[in-house]
């Protein structure tokens, strides 16, 4: 019996030692002693890392973008429209409310809503696409704020001196989780990537930044930041076949696209009928005869000092204000002439109407034509302006404009006003154009010399 009791005692677990007898590790005791010697404010300060500082600085300028897009989907009754909700990220780069994001985030959007961190600004704002370059997957938006309202911005850094292994921070709205911060490093530079845009097939991007900072659906369009809180890239793509591989468009490339394309005159939706020199003097160098600017008295040599209530101090500032103007709206402008300031209100035209007036001297309308193959469109001349290139070649109101092309080229039918504007966009003044028209069931061909100041 004694042997059995000894055996059971041997198998029984040992009783735990009293809690007071458990000695704390040296690390715990050192930390406890450190924290006990700090005030609550000092303890909080210990938690403020570089990443916290970057998030605090940049997050107020990052927006959550929600879109409503109408897509066609097949059904028993044929193709039916369907509302599709989309989302993404963007960042304010100018305090007037200009946002840079990926074009695929806002492509085909009927409505765009942007929101900031609720503690920064609880309101939701409507926004408009000012310009875009699909091949670069970049778009410029403008918030519909109150007159004179200013928004927080993210500072732009440079991508010219990036280092592999450098710490980076991504801010965005992945999977609907708004204003999410993730941290990583630059894993690679100068990456060439093919990315499907979901509609038009693959887009090719070169010279991208590769990072292992978490970038998921919804991060697109948000900033990639260095440890100083400067934007060094636009988060654009994630490799869905691998983990922790994301890509961003370098900020120097974004700057170049802004300068050369997004802010270019070819992106102006509102046509006013004048041009300024490309310097900070903002002096008017050309005024189109008969255009809206001339009609209200703008002259060559006038210096533009304000658009709306915004004083202009640089050509860059002018370009942002100019590209954001809406067609069919009255544009208030203040100009300086002979040492005195004058206020003008210019009734803007849409870009296509202005281009057809300035370069061809005509206006036209699209007419739906039904055939066995469905509904198509044809372009009919509605007005020919006196003294214009169209009058010189003999065009008349009522003519059907079938084709317009540079001399010696082929193709280029123009069934819509946009097609016609596209056929002449970017061509120099005095370029010979071959035109094809139909009048009273007879087809004529002629040569038109392109007008305009381009």
Kindly report the spatial arrangement of strands forming the biggest sheet: 1-2-3-6-5-4
- The CATH homologous superfamily of the largest domain corresponds to PDZ domain
How much of the sequence lies in strands comes to 35-45%
Rg, rounded, reads 31 Å
Named CATH topology of the largest domain: Pdz3 Domain
* Largest sheet features: 6 strands, antiparallel, barrel
Question: How many helices?
Answer: 11
* Unreliably modeled segments: 1-12
Average of the residue pLDDT scores = 87
CATH architecture of the largest domain: Roll
Provide the domain count.
Answer: 4
Shape category: globular
> Which structural class best describes the helix and strand composition?
alpha+beta
| Helix share bin | 10-25%
Give a concise summary.
The protein has 454 residues and is an alpha+beta fold. 20% of the residues lie in helices and 41% in strands.
Could you list some keywords that capture this structure?
Thrombin, subunit H; six-stranded antiparallel beta barrel; alpha+beta; single chain; disordered N terminus; Pdz3 Domain; 41% strand; 11 helices; six-stranded antiparallel β-barrel; 454 residues
Describe it.
With 454 residues, the chain is α+β, with helices and mostly antiparallel strands. It folds into 4 domains: 59-143, Thrombin, subunit H, CATH 2.40.10; 167-251, Beta Barrel (Thrombin, subunit H), CATH 2.40.10.10; 265-347, Pdz3 Domain (Roll), CATH 2.30.42; 358-449, PDZ domain (Pdz3 Domain, Roll), CATH 2.30.42.10. The chain is globular. Residues 1-12 have low confidence and may be disordered. Helix content is 20%, strand content 41%. It starts with a helix and ends in a 5-residue tail after the last strand. 33% of the residues are buried. A hairpin with a 7-residue loop joins strand 11 and strand 12. Helix 9 (351-360) crosses helix 11 (417-424). The chain has helices at 2-11, 26-36, 40-46, 50-58, 103-106, 251-262, 292-295, 315-323, 351-360, 389-393, 417-424, and strands at residues 62-75, 78-94, 98-101, 109-115, 124-133, 138-143, 167-172, 180-196, 202-211, 223-225, 231-238, 246-250, 270-271, 274-276, 284-287, 303-307, 310-311, 330-337, 340-347, 349-350, 362-371, 374-384, 400-406, 432-439, 442-449. It is built from 11 helices and 25 strands. The strands form 6 sheets. The chain has a 6-stranded antiparallel beta barrel. A 6-stranded antiparallel barrel has the order 7-8-9-12-11-10. It has a 5-stranded antiparallel β-sheet with strand order 21-22-23-24-25.
């Amino acid at each position: 019996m004694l042997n059995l009791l000894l055996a059971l005692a041997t198998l029984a677990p040992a009783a735990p030692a009293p809690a007071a007898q458990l000695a704390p590790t040296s690390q715990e005791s050192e930390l406890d002693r450190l924290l006990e010697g700090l005030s609550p404010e000092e303890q909080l300060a210990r938690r403020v890392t570089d990443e916290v500082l970057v998030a605090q600085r940049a997050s107020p300028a990052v927006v959550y973008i929600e879109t409503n897009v109408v897509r066609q989907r097949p059904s028993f009754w044929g193709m039916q429209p369907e509302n599709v909700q989309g989302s993404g990220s963007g960042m304010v780069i100018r305090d007037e409310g200009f946002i840079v994001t990926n074009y695929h985030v806002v492509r085909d959007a009927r409505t765009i809503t942007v929101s900031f961190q609720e503690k920064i600004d609880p309101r939701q704002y409507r926004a408009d696409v000012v310009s875009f370059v699909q091949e670069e997957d970049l778009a410029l938006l403008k918030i519909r704020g109150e007159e004179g309202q200013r928004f927080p911005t993210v500072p732009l850094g440079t991508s010219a001196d990036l280092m592999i292994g450098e710490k980076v921070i991504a801010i965005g709205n992945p999977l609907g989780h708004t204003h999410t911060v993730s941290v990583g490093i630059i894993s690679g530079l100068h990456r060439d990537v093919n990315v499907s845009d979901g509609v038009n097939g693959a887009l090719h991007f070169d010279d991208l930044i590769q990072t292992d900072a978490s970038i998921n659906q919804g991060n697109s369009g948000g900033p990639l930041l260095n440890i100083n809180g400067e934007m060094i890239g636009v988060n654009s793509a994630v490799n869905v076949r691998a983990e922790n591989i994301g890509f961003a468009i370098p900020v120097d490339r974004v700057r170049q696209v802004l300068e050369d394309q997004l802010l270019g005159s070819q992106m102006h939706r509102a046509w006013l009928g004048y041009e300024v020199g490309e310097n900070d003097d903002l002096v008017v160098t050309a005024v189109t005869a008969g255009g809206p600017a001339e009609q209200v008295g703008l002259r060559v040599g006038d210096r533009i000092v304000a658009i709306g209530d915004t004083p202009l101090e640089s050509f860059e500032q002018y370009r942002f204000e100019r590209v954001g103007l809406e067609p069919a709206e009255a544009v208030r402008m203040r100009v300086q002439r002979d040492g005195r300031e004058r206020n003008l209100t210019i009734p803007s035209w849409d870009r296509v109407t202005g281009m057809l007036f300035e370069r061809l001297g005509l206006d036209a309308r699209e007419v739906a034509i039904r055939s066995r193959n469905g509904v198509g469109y044809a372009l009919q001349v509605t007005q020919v302006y006196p003294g214009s290139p169209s009058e010189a070649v003999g065009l008349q109101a009522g003519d059907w404009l079938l084709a317009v092309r540079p001399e010696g080229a082929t193709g280029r039918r123009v069934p819509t006003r946009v097609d016609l504007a596209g056929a002449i966009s970017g061509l120099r003044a005095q370029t010979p154009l071959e035109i094809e028209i139909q009048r009273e069931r007879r087809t004529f061909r002629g040569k038109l010399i392109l007008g305009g100041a381009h």
